[in-house]
Structure formats: C-alpha cells, structure tokens
Write a structure and sequence with these properties.
576 residues, alpha/beta, 4-stranded antiparallel β-sheet, 4-stranded parallel β-sheet, 21 helices, globular, binds arginine
C-alpha cells in the first residue's frame, strides 16, 4: 500500500482510536491534497461537534497519539482543527522506488475478487452501430479491462438486440437475395443497406409484407427452418460487430454475445414466478408489475408490462430474465449495466422487481452506469444533413483521416503514417469520450479531440512518445533506468506524489464505473511530468546520481501513462 492518502488515513484513524477511544476506530478521516502541506486531514472538526469539545483540543489529542515519524516530516494543526501533513522526502522516494521496482506498478491483485457481470455495447443486430453506441462500448470496455487487471472475474454480456418482429422481413429479404449474394454480404459490411432494402420492400410490396408477418409467427413458434435462417442472419451480423470491435480495439468477442434471444426460453417461467410470488398481476389483459413509488402524472401507478394482452413478451421481460440469470446462474456479486441515461426508469423498475422477487438476496448489487448522449455541433443529437443518425464508424474514420493530416509533414512512410494515424485518431475519439463524466452529454468535436494541448488523447500519447525519445537519446532501455530515485526538487516531489496515486484512481474508476476519474489522474500526471521536465534537466543533470534518479522517474512515469491508457483502451504509439 503506497498511496499516501490511504497510508495517512490509516495512521490518523489509529491515532483517533488511541486518543478518543476505540469506538472511533472506524471513523474515516478525510485526507485530501492541500496547498499548505502535501495533505490535509479533516476529522477533528466533525468529531468535536459530536463530542461537544473544542475542535483544536480534539486535533491536539489526535496529534499526540499520531505515529507518523517514518512517513511525515511535519504535522501541524491549522485553522480551526485541520491537520496539515508534510511527507518525508525519503519516504516519498522509497515508495516511488517500490512502485518502479514492481512489475504491476504497485497495483496489487485484489484479495477480494468479485464476479462482475458487465452488460455493455449492446447494439442491434442487422443495423449499423450508431454514435451513441460508442459510449456504451468504450466506457464498458475501460471498466472491464480495469476490473480484470485488478483480478476480478469479469463476465461480459453483450445484450445485442437480436430478436423482434423486424426479423421477419429481414429473413424474407435474405431468402429473396440468397445467402451468398452481394446483398447478404452487406450484413457483414454495411448492415444498414440490407436493413433499408428490406424495409423498403416491406413498405411497398404487400405480398412481401404478408410473408414477413407469417415469418415472424414461425420464428416465434420455433420453426426449425426459420430459426436456421435467423441464425444465418445473426452469423453474418456478427462479423460486422467483430470488425467494429477490432477496429476500436474493444475486448468484446463473439463469446460475449448474450443477446435478447438467449432469454426466450426463460420468459414464460419468469412471468410465472413473478405471478406466483404475487409481484405481477393481471391488468387490462396484460401481466404487469406495479411498484411502490413508480407513479406517473396524477399519481397513477406506472406498470412494468411483462406479458402483453396478446401473450407477447417485451424488452422488460427479457431484462428480468437476464437479471435473474446473471444473479442466480452466473452468481454475480455486481451487475453493471452500461446503458443510456434515458433507460434509467426502466432499469430502476427491473432492479426493484428483481429485489422483490428475491433474486438479489445473495448480495448481488445491480448498478446502472448511465451514459449521456453524443451531440452534434448544434447541441442536438447527432444527425447527418439529411437527418439520419450518424454511424459510429463514420465518426471513427473521420478521426483517423484528420489525425493523418496532423502528422502529414513528419516524414513517415505510408505504412507507418497509417498506423500512427489510426492510433492517434481512434485514441483521440475514445479518450474524449472517456474523459467526460459518463452521464453528461458532450459535443462531438474532432478539433478539440485531436488538439495536442489539454486533456486529450494526443496530448497524452505525445507525452509518452517524448519520454521514449529521451531514452532513445540516452541510448538506454527503459528497464535499465533503475534509479535509485531521490526526491529533492519540488517538481520531483510533485511528480513522485502523483505517481503514488495510480491505485486510488483505478479504485475510483471501478467504484462508480467512472473512467473520467482515471483520465483526470493520467492528465494530472502528464502535467506534473511536464513541470518536472521543464525544471529538472534529465540528460544534462548536474551529476550522475541525479541523472539516474531522473531517468528512473521518467521511466516510471512512462510506464504509468502507458498502463493507465491501456486500461482505458487507448493505444500509445512508439512515435508521433
Ligand atoms: N439494444 C439496446 C439499444 O441499442 C440496448 C440494450 C441495453 N441492455 C439491456 N440489458 N437492456 O438501445
């Protein structure tokens, strides 16, 4: 445990227990970075109120029992009762050295591995992925990568929309064009073309529409030949998804597909169970779940309809089957839904129903990681000029094209330029997404995303490339920069302290599914590095010991940046 914030919290806690009494052993002191010292602890004030004592007296008593001589050079009581804690330089240096010596940069594998089921990406089969799918895909992927890195068991569930009435017309269209026709090929390359062609026929050709409707009936009835055609359709679409995920370097594979159709066989049973338990009741011919506190206008209860009056099941029933399966069959400790914010009410009702049914009683937590929208320059949902929703791949390839312009004049051969442009363009779009709080909206603006200054992907990739070039000039392998690290200059101290906060940033990401917390950390680290680099000559350091220490600081900074960006799924090209 090298995160100074955690170390100090534990020490203050112990002092608190010793000074005021064991019953306060679990009191969590608020330790935060301070402009007056390295950190400031705030516990005396809240406590004093409860004890009816003067905050300064409580603070004095805590300090008298505070055993931090090995960690802190100075402890001061300031203001009404804050503790200002200044760390020892040799402690900072030793901790940073320990991080540097550790292959995992001090990020120990968790002692309490959880089973995390993560529902993310979830586009619709036989349709193009749209702008908003980038967010549910990228945020979910940063979360699963980070959780796995810390040793949790992650089960990815790509809840693709692979079932519904539109499959009748899609199957009929596939039959018409033939499964090895160029039209069928479109499913794997440009699924929208296939979908639109089917739709156009459905709207203009009555016999086709009738055939499609009969096909839906056979599909739902489990007709073997129809299911075979449906599977073919899904199969072709899979290769489209695979291609997008590969281009985006997203960890989802075919094995993670757990589409809506997977739950078909469970739907009737879910309805029965909820009815049997008295949670679902018949209302106007439909089977509904009414939940306390879910009311619409004029206080009218809003039902969750789980079986329509025609006997059909819907989106909600599928999600109920999914949550039951994830909790009871996959044994999830936590189910994370990386899904658009507009679905918040739907999910709250699903979660509440699951809770009432007892499915979460094994201690399963259901968490909606709500995702905001991607907006166009006008601040409205992104659309093309003709009013169509924008395809995800259009955005991505535009980013790559623009990145290629940025590096046009650097003298790279074609192949290298293409590789760097892909890393920079895709990295820029992904990073821009991840660095925004996941539930706020953002405007898709490639100029901002590709800027070489500020909290952007290219700025951070550039920071990494710059450190790499130092090692090239020093003719030294990064792994050979072993230190020892000493911390003297204020810029060295600030950089080292920043390096020690990596674990805390990942914990923050995991707790709230908040990749922007890790982004903010990485950006602050790159900033601390820039200040260090401007103030502390590395290759021209005054003596060999300082040079060795600074090279080690460069090396551990680089590894932290690369690892942090990799956990976000953002590549770091060798050169830029
Ligand atoms: N397929 C849906 C869409 O594209 C999202 C599904 C989200 N996951 C879920 N379990 N409801 O909007």
């Amino acid at each position: 445990m090298s995160d100074p914030q955690l170390v100090l919290a534990a020490r203050v806690q112990a002092a608190l227990a010793a000074a005021i009494g064991q019953e306060y052993a679990n009191e969590d002191p608020l330790i935060r970075p301070s402009q007056f010292a390295d950190f400031q602890a705030n516990v005396a004030m809240a406590l004093a109120k409860r004890l009816g004592r003067k905050p300064r007296d409580v603070a004095t008593e805590i300090v008298a029992h505070l055993d931090v001589a090995d960690v802190c050079a100075d402890v001061e009581i300031s203001g009404p009762g804050f503790l200002n804690l200044t760390l020892r330089e040799d402690w900072i240096a030793a901790q940073t050295q320990a991080v540097h010596n550790d292959e995992r940069l001090g990020l120990t594998v968790t002692e309490h591995p959880q089973t995390l089921v993560v529902d993310y990406s979830a586009p619709n089969i036989a349709k193009e992925m749209l702008a908003h799918h980038i967010r549910t895909t990228i945020v979910g992927d940063a979360f699963t990568r980070s959780a796995e890195f810390l040793g949790h068991k992650v089960i990815r569930q790509n809840h693709v929309g692979d079932w519904g009435t539109q499959f009748g017309m899609l199957i009929e269209h596939l039959l018409d064009v033939g499964d090895d026709s160029p039209e069928a090929e479109q499913l794997a390359t440009e699924p929208n073309l296939f979908y639109q062609a089917a739709r156009a026929k459905f709207d203009s050709d009555d016999t086709f529409a009738e055939r499609s409707r009969q096909r839906v009936v056979r599909l739902q009835g489990g007709d073997a030949e129809t299911l075979k055609l449906w599977r073919e359709l899904v199969e072709l679409s899979k290769s489209y998804l695979g291609r997008v995920y590969q281009r985006l370097d997203v960890t989802l594979t075919d094995d993670d597909l757990a589409g809506e159709s997977m739950y078909n066989d469970m739907l009737a049973d879910v309805c029965d169970e909820l009815e049997r338990k008295g949670i679902a009741t018949m209302s106007e011919g439909a089977l509904c779940v009414f939940l306390d506190g879910f009311t619409g206008r004029e206080g009218k209860p809003v039902p969750l309809i789980i079986r329509k009056s025609d006997g059909g099941y819907g989106y909600a029933t599928t999600d109920l089957a999914a949550i039951r399966y994830r909790a009871l069959t996959l044994h999830a400790d936590r189910i994370v839904y990386v899904i658009g914010a507009p679905q918040a009410l739907h999910l709250r009702m699903v979660f509440e129903t699951a809770r009432k049914a007892g499915w979460l009683e094994g201690g399963t937590e259901a968490f909606h990681a709500a995702i905001g929208s991607v907006l166009g320059p006008d601040g409205k949902l992104m659309r093309t000029r003709s009013g169509e929703p924008i395809k995800l791949m259009t955005l991505i390839e535009e980013g790559v094209e623009r990145a290629e312009k940025v590096i046009e004049d650097r003298g790279y051969d074609d192949q290298t330029r293409k590789e760097i442009a892909a890393a920079v363009g895709i990295g820029a779009v992904k990073y821009a997404d991840l660095s925004t709080a996941r539930d706020s909206d953002y405007i898709f603006d490639l100029d901002r995303m590709l800027a070489l200054q500020g909290n952007t992907g290219p700025y951070l990739q550039y920071a990494v490339a710059r450190i790499r070039s130092i090692f090239r000039r020093a003719e030294l392998n990064v792994t050979d920069a072993t230190g020892p690290i000493v911390v003297g200059d204020p810029a060295e101290r600030a950089l080292a302290l920043q390096l020690l906060g990596f674990g805390g940033a990942i914990d923050a990401l995991l707790a709230d599914v908040a990749p922007h917390r890790l982004c903010a950390y990485i950006y602050a680290l790159a900033d601390a590095y820039t200040t260090f680099y401007e103030n502390c000559p590395v290759l021209r350091a005054p003596d060999d010991a300082t040079r060795a220490s600074r090279l080690a600081l460069c090396a551990v900074t680089m590894r932290t940046l690369v690892t942090g960006l990799a956990l976000l799924g953002v590549p770091t090209p060798e050169r830029m």
